[in-house]
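Record copied across here:
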Amino acid sequence: MTPSLKGILCMCLGVLFLALGDAVSKGLGAVHSPIQIIFFRTLVSLPLIALLAYFSGGLRKLRTKRPGGHLLRGVIYTATMVCFVWGVTLLPWQKPPPLRLSHRYLSRCYPCRF
């Protein structure tokens, strides 16, 4: 398997996990506050990241020469997660549109016939 194919597969799995995480956040949002969802998501991810770092060369892999950049990125991603999870929990559940309605939009976007 080529490195490009591995990269494509990893990105596809990443998008799948993002979608699954968003769906779980939406379901949990009906019962728990967005702050609880974010807290436990972070609480669970920290030991997993530490294990990943440990098995891929040790915890020294987490050492950085640019702590300011990582701090800024961490603040930005935290703000992104807070806004997104809060937004997802505020939106009502939607029924997907019927396939025949999607057909009309797809037929205008692509020159082939559906």
Notes: The chain has a mean pLDDT of 83. DSSP finds four helices and no strands in the chain.
